[in-house]
Amino acid sequence: MKYLKVLIFGCFFIGPFLSKGNEIYQNPSGVLIVNKSAPSADIVVPMKSSKQIMKAAQTLQKYLLKSTGANLKITTQTGSRNFISIGNTDFIKKSRIDLNGLDEDGFLIQSINKKSVVIVGGSDWGTEFGVYEFLERFLDITWLMPTALGEYVPLKSSLIIPDIKILDNPVFLSRQISPANINLSKPLDVWARLNRFRGRIEFHHNLNKLFPPNQYLRKNPDFYGMENGKRATPKTGQYKWQPNFTAKGIADSAANNIVRYFKQNPDKTSYSLGTNDYKVFDQSSLSKSRRSNRNNFLGLEDVSEDYFDWANQVASKVNKIYPNKKFGTLAYNNLAEPPRNSINPNIIPFITYERLKWKDPSVKKLGIDIMNEWKQKSSSLGWYDYAYGFNYLVPRVWFHHMQDYLQLGKKNNIKYYYAELYPNWGEGPKPWIMSKLLWNPDQDVDALLNEWYNKAAGKDAAPKLRRFYEIWEKFWTVDVFNTKWYNSGKGQFMPFRDLSYLSQIPDSYVSESDNLMKSAYQLAKTSDEKGRVSELLKMWNVYKSAIKIYKSEKKVNLDNFSQILDPLKSDPIHVETIKAIENKIK
Q1: Helix or strand or coil: residue 53?
Q2: Which of 90, 92, 296, 327 is placed for a possible disulfide with 302 were both Cys, Cβ 3.0 to 4.6 Å?
Q3: C-alpha to C-alpha distance for 188 and 194, rounded to whole angstroms
Q4: How many CB atoms lie within 10 A of CB 512?
Q5: 526-566: pLDDT as tens digits
Q6: Torsion over CA of 533, 534, 538 and 543, rounded to 10 degrees?
Q7: Up-side HSE of residue 547: CA atoms within 13 Å toward CB?
Q8: pLDDT for residue 334
Q9: Are the C-beta atoms of 41 and 182 separated by less than 8 Å?
Q10: Which residue ranges in the chain fall short of pLDDT 70?
């Protein structure tokens, strides 16, 4: 048998090289990790492991035990046993393994000889993500949705790693969704981290924090903008105001505050210059004289010249002390179009628009034109998307279109992505598909969908789920663009506060979806499969009731909906969704 030696860039899938029953594939170049549920290897970590590396090693240990029944020892020493080296161990250093070309989230998985496998990243983050890739690739473990129910962990009696080298970097360097915080421990936070969501750029609304009124309002009142002939006098924490970017000393004050922030937080790599979430900017004559004197494509006063003149000054002053620090900001509302002059290369504007709307050809053309204008002025760009989620009362999915625009983003060197996702797990594979495509948008979407359906529900039920989500993908990528509901919204995102889309759903979609979801539950075999389909069915009953109520009453409120929602308030998968729905329909 020839040795199998593969160099992989991106997320090309190599099937799991595992045991067949209790027999082990005889591969002379393979590294034996588990043999008949007994450990044949150790997990080796650096002498002075960071908490993150130790936790990654413990995660590897945990899932190897779950899958194979073998409890591998975590140690800092290599010995006579085979081993998996995690992070920048002494073994890595002595082996002089070339780690050039690794992004900080990227990783190398390589069998070095017949005794050892290394998992090491461009940073601790990359090593952690390499552990997750190892578990997915060689044990077929998948985190389909939050909580233990969402884990797919097939049982294996033995594990052998072939002679292999995998070098993998993410296409989108920053991959962030709301409301997940991967440093916390709620079910969504844990799920997002396991699926490699990670934000790397601060960019959100932040100027109310940069210029807190309790610090500046008395001594620098001109830092606050004029509106209707009056100077804004906000209270600390309020955001319905914008700074006066022409005020004397305002760039120096901002730079000093940011320098102080980086001194106090040396591990931080970026700072947000995102404007407040408010559409009225300073109306003084000096500020207006620095603007283009026109409205942008959203019909709002264009203030990009004014704002980016200030932002460039701030970035330049900070970069004299911290040359590599970056500054995220929002290309949003009054800043939706770029300024005439170039933008500091360390400023990263996030172009803010709902890219599902790009299924409308005229909207896509405009979006691409605007993106190309930004590319001429800025060397780094991000995308801000509205991928809800919570705010809709039917499954809102667009798997293939998502791939189309993420591939376009890759082609245009968009490196940073953020979505207001607020997952609704009645949408099934949507968040998981997003995680995969943000890492590498060139994967086969249909293969990924089939993987999710089969692992979630089993091979008999999978076709029913596939057809169910095909119905809703057609509604959101074809049907909805011919509705009055869609055409009533001309802004940066679809009019999610308007529930009238519910009246546009054909009765045939509802009846077929109902039959499909019920059939999927009946066809699911194992308790885990039935449990996962049950979670989808629970949300389908919510959706179905919302459609029925709206069509008969032209509204949905808590009084006529509470009996459907109440049973889900204690469900950890759906509790956040139910809170959002209740707030929406009060």
Answers
A1: helix
A2: 296
A3: 10
A4: 14
A5: 999 999 999 999 999 999 999 999 999 999 888 878 888 99
A6: 20
A7: 20
A8: 97
A9: no
A10: 1-29, 488-489
